[in-house]
Every structure is written in structure tokens, then in C-alpha cells.
Amino acid sequence: xxxxxxxxxxxxxxxxxxxxxIFFTLARDPAFAFPRDIQTEVLNKWYSRRDERDVIVxxxxxxxxxxxxxxxxxxxxxxxxxPALWVSPNIQLAxxxxxxxxxxxxxxxxxxxxxxxxTGSAICVVNAYKLFNGRSVFxxxxxxxxxxxxxxxxxxxxxxxxxxxxRATFANTHPxxxxxxxxxxxxxxxxxxxxxxxxxxxxxxSAMEVPFWSWDANHDAVLAVLHEHREDxxxxxxxxxxxxxxxxxRCVIGGQRLEIEPYFPATDLVRSFQRAQRRIYMTAxxxxxxxxxxxxxxxxxxxxxxxxxxxxxxxxxxxxxMPQELNTDLxxxxxxxxxxxxxxxxxxxxxxPSKAAASEWMEVADRVLVDDGASDxxxxxxxxxxxxxxxxxLAILVNRYDxxxxxxxxxxxxxxxxxxxxxxxxxxxxxxxxxxTDVNLRRQIERIxxxxxxxVRSNEDHCVVLLIGSRLIxxxxxxxxxxxxxxxxxAQLELTRKIAARMTEPSAHEIGVxxxxxxxxxPGWTALSRKALVGIAVDDALRLDNTKLALRTAFDLxxxxxQQEAVTVLNDAVNDQDDPHMRAWxxxxxxAFLHPLDAQLAQKALSAAHDIDxxxxxxxxxxxxxxxxxxxxxxxxxxxxxxxxxxxxxQRNLFVNSLCSDLRFLPKTSEKFEAAVDELASFLGIAAxxxxxxxxxxxxxxxxxxxxxxxxxxxxxxxxxxREQITKTEAGQLGQSMEWFRSRYPASQGVPIMxxxxxxxxxxxxxxxxxxxxxKNALDKxxxxxxxxxxxxxxxxxxxxxAEVAQRLEQFGFRSERFVQEFTVAPT
Length: 828
Hints:
Number of helices: 38
CATH class of the largest domain: Alpha Beta
Structural class: alpha/beta
Number of domains: 5
Radius of gyration: 29 Å
Number of strands: 21
């Protein structure tokens, strides 16, 4: 007679609560024999703190965090804290969770309406888009489906998803785009008439923010436009969020699209998430823990220290190389050739920040993975599956630093090329102010680390990581950048420096030999790489940015119509801020929150911000113009002061390389080019700024020379080489720049300079008096001498000695009084 053993289970028996004990009750695949030590350690720590509402768990890639998270949720269910929800950044990762849960015997469902989820007999697995959207099945401003415990997996990747879900975007072909421009047009013209004309002409390079006073005054009219289109395509999933947060939002209008985005994604609008009893945030590279409060609504005063294992041995093996640190003469073409050769044998993935950056890789790429619908690209999800299935070769991944798994042979060589770029208009405007601050650096470092983690997905996995780009390497090598890296990455980079000590300016081929030692499993390398991670001190510090927290507090107070309290919070944040750029940025935010209470005081706050950094929004009455003056000291002394930022000769050479890379005649690179012209002046000890960028002046760059004369520089780097003439329009623009200069500096002498591939004027072009040209030959000469000049400054006996620096400035023609003679030619 068969026995029904299930009848023998005592219903009164206490449920198994500890997640490690739960593991042994599961009908799991034999591959899951025991939890790893590192998993047990994390589970023990969490179990003792399981009643804390918001808990951060940091586990290196390959630590088995999926199993850890599933066991935590199952523990919550067994304790009666359900239903239990798992949130992944995207559909692909959600499906992987379902697969692994099945392998360990934990029931799941992908349907939030499934009764098994509501009753706690299965964990519901969804992607972040499913939970956080204006028509969420979980309910907006009401709890349609309850959540008891939730794991937010890859929380850093979910942050970017949240921003997208709360951002309204309208292309310039959409009726709402033109309707909103019509509402705010007069204020845009008054704020910046030339820029408005560019936007109105659909210039893809131009964008301008709607001034906060205009946004406040036109709130009802804009809301009516949005309401009219509330059922349109994708906008229907954003409208319920944006409409409720419109007063606390920013609107930026570009030539091709406009964006409306609140200061923060208010995830509390999804009420069931806000009310969940246990919220667990799992991540590998979250350097800034503030997002748990600013984006997920956790109370910062109740966030405990992150749960972090004491061992780093779960990290997979990574050989991290920075080729341009090993040899600053290596070019982009050298490295593309190296990766192309490696791709003949293994899968190589290169992460680039944008489609424009991907263009340089087209000739060597086998696949371009980007979700933009272009005919010459492959969808990211399809491309990832292809890589996981077999050999593809060289794949270019466009602007995807997280939410992707490339284990084993799917990716044996991973390159992160160039610094990550911002993805929204508001972030782009903010980065103009915050570019040199720790806030911006931390964002970049975090994205780079996220990208580096794509190729190593378990502690048995191995991958070579190449970091490419002079600016990227300089950021990582800076003192502040080093402090922001995770301990494991820092240790693996230190190992890179030991490798570098054995190599003297290696060629791309020689670097390839070292890479193949890793790929071919050289026993010496594998032992060395494992040893590098031994004894790394645990880093469980809770890193909260008080400025971001203050902004989030002000945002929530304003939403509750407690405007005066919001202003008080921001005023305290301004007073606590030492960094001038952060202070200016905060004053603009304070002005926006102050405007509904006192418009006049708001304009005073904005004027104060503009006095600190005139990149920020101009006040209604304009601003006092600050004349550019020559540097106060001798050029050599000013140069030395600027060069104190370089920690060694390598970093100086990398800076020079980045300048030379940006000083190219290339379409769609005007921003980089003009910034490089400005940085070149600073590198040479010359005072300079960008009038068109700073205060919408008529010229791109202005240099103040030591002899009290000025260089008025108009950049035409987007003109393709091969065009044989300077046009009448281009010459006219330089003439307008000189008129602007004379109005600003009536007692000074200005030299009109045009940077253009050719020195030849068209027959109908009017010569500007005194005009000089930096043509292709002159620019090449400048860059060639700049590289040699930078190398000579690397000698400590030269670079720190004002007399020696002055001698080199004279030798290379960079003394300010000689610059025009040495590097410009007369037009013909």
C-alpha cells in the first residue's frame, strides 16, 4: 500500500525561516549542492536584520546573488511577509531569474495577477518597466496589488530605468512639441534669442531649458496639452506620473525633441512599492547609496550599513589593462587593430557611449548592438543571445553599461571606450556646470565599473578588460577617482600597474601577447590574479550624498505644498557647500523652488548663481558682464599651477592626448573641439573662456594674452577636410565676433582667428581686418609640438621650475606673444 507522506506533515510545525535552512528543503538541481560560504555569510547578516524596511546588499558579480535574493524572498514568505516580488532591470534578466529559480525549486510566476503570487505560494518576477509605469498593474496612487517583500535586483541598472519611466519625450514631429514651444516661445526668445532660433530651425545640437518662471506661469496650459495626448502610444505610460509632478519638473527643448522630467522619480506613486514591509536592494557597483533614498524613497535616517561579504574571492578573474597608460603614443587605430585580431579567436565586446562614438569602430566591427531601430544595427537582446550562443567576433555595444550578462565565451575581451555620456537633456545641461565636480566624477566611475562587470559573471569566469580613452583613464587614475572604485577593482588595477612595471612603452602587438596569456590560461597569471584579491578589506561604508538628499527632501516638501520649508532645506544645503560649481547649481534649484513664494528673491538667488558660474540660467534682468583679464602671474607660473592637477607625467601625457584627439576636423564634434581649445589655453598658462557657452557671446573662444591683446577665435572644425574655401558666411561670423569683442573690450586689441581646414577665402568673402587662420597644417603642427612640449614637462626638473618652463614655452612657440606668429597663417 502506498503511503501519502504529505499527510504526515504536521500543519502545526513551525515554518523554516532562515534562508540557508530553506535551501536544504528545496527540490533543487544537483548542481546546487551547498550554499557557498559567501552566500551563507550574507544570508546570516540579512536574517538578523530582516525586519529593517530598506536593506542594501552588495555582492560582486559571480557571487550567486540571484540565489541569495530568492532565498531572502522565500524566507519572507515563510514568515508571512508576502506577497514577494522580484524586480529586474529588463525582460532578459527577469527570464534568467525565472530559470534559476526553477533550478533550485523555488516556484515563480511572471504574472502579478496570478493567484499563486497573492497567496504567497510563488514569487512574482517582473522587470522594472512593469512595476514603475503610469499604468502599473500594481496601481498608481493606490495599491491594486499588495507587495510584502521585494528585491530590486541590479539596483544601479534600475535607476536609469526609473528615470526613463518618469520622463516625457516628444519628437519635433509630434503636435505636443509644437504646442508647448508655442506656449513658452516668448520666454525662450527673451532668455536666449539666438539659441531659440537654432532650436526652432531643428538644429540637433541646440537645446535650451524653459526658465522656471515661465514653467510656473504656464503650468496649466502645458498640462492641458499633455492631457490632450494622454492616450498617445508610449506617453500613456508616462502621463500619470508627469501630470502629477509637473510643477516639480524641468522642461528642456531641443531642435529634435523636448523632454519633461521631474527632479526625481517619485516611486512612492506606486503605492504598493512604497508600503512594502521589506525592500532589499541588490547591487555590485553602487558607489553612491543615496539613490536608495532619492530614487526608491527610502528614509535615509533608517538605512543601515550595506550588507557586504568579508571576502572578495567571489569576484571572477579580470585582467584590467589601460593600454594608453602603458604607452601614451598608442592611437585609437592601434587599439582597434589589436581588438580586431583578438576577435578572430574570441568574442570581443566594446562598450561605446553613443552612436557617434560607434562610427569609429564600424570598419572593424562584426555587429553593432543598439536599440534604435536602425537598419545597420542589431537589437541588444538579440545580439547578446548570439554572443552567448557562439563565436561572433567584435561586437559594439552602444551605451549599455548595465543590465546585460555576457558569461564565459560570450565575452572574453571587454573594452570600455571613452567616458560614458549623459542620456537626458537635463543631465547634459547640469553636466556643463558640474563637469569638474566629484558628483560628475562619481557618476562616471560608477558607469565605468558597471560596464567592466558585463564580462565576468561568476567566480569561475575570466575576462580581459581594456579601458580606452585618455580622458577615461585620467579620471580613473585621479586621486578622487581611485577613492571611488570598489575594493576589488582597485586591487585588480593595482595588479595592472605591476604588469606595467614589466613593460616599457609596449606596442599594441606586445600588449596582445600579454592578453593572450590570460586567454590561454597561463598558470602564473591565474595564480597572480587570485592572489591580488586575497585579504582585501571589506568596504561596508554607507555613502550618502547630503546635497542629493537635501534636494530630494525639498522635492517632496514642494509636492506637499510646503514650499517655504523646501526653500529652507535648500538654503542650508547651499550654505554647507564649498565647491563653487555645486553652490551655483544649488542656487539655481533654490531659485526655482523660491519663485512661487517670492519672484524677486528668486531672481536675486539666480543672479548670485550666475555670478559664481555664468554657465547657469541667466536671470530675467540679465547679468553683469565680467571681462576676461590676462592671468595675474607670469605664464610659466600659471602653467605650473594648472599642472599641479597631474599626479605624474603619464597623466599629463594622457591629457595632451585627449586634447589632440578632440582637436580634429570632424562633424558633430564642435562641443568637444571648443572645449579643447579652452583647455589648451589653460594647459599653456593662458587665461581663456568660451563666450558663446558662458554668456551667449558671438565668438566660440576668447584668449587673453600676457601683452593685453586677445585672440578672438571662431571654430569651424565641423567643416570637412577637402572643402577648399572659407565661405562668405563663415567670414561674416568672424566679423560679427570682432564686433562683439569691440563692444565688450573697447580699449583692447583683438586678433581675429578662424580655425578652418583651409586658409583660402571664397571670392565673395570679405576679409576681416587682421584675420589669421589655423588651417589643417597649422593645427597638425600645433598638436605635434604640444605632444613634445608635454613630454618635456614630465621631467620634474623642468615641469616645476618656472625658468625651465618659460624656456620651453619659447622653444616650442607657446609663449603667448609668439602663438599667433607660430601657429597661424594669413588667409589667401
